[in-house]
Specification:
Elements lengths: L14 E5 L2 E4 L2 E3 L3 E4 L2 E4 L11 H8 L5 E5 L9 H6 L6 E5 L1 H13 L4 E5 L3
Parallel strand pairs: 6-7, 6-8
Antiparallel strand pairs: 1-2, 2-3, 4-5, 4-8
Amino acid sequence: MKFEPDLSLGNRNRITSYGPGHVIVAGQRHTRNLIVMADRLIPGWGPANAGGFLLEHMEALVQLEPELVLVGTGTRLVFPRHEIMTWLPLRGIGLEFMDTGAACRAYNFLLGEDRRVAAALLIA
């Protein structure tokens, strides 16, 4: 899916497109898992698949100090173990799991509201 440009976002990392096996952020195509924030991209984050979440993946997100993390689990929504789902909220960080397309759309919306959001995306 391709998005229409929102020029009000300036130089912030906006997700401009996504599809099977890729996400395009600020015109750059990514084919590996990554974290997207307004001011940074972190490639190579996360497990090989949605069933492989570990606490170390969540710890990497805490260090970024987001107010909310959107985890895209690939082409379909997959919920991880309870300890993974509660680890960030217990530290005061909002957490939502959704399919990667929904995470991309929600990220752009929240970015437009100047929220400190991180999209942690599994590319399937």
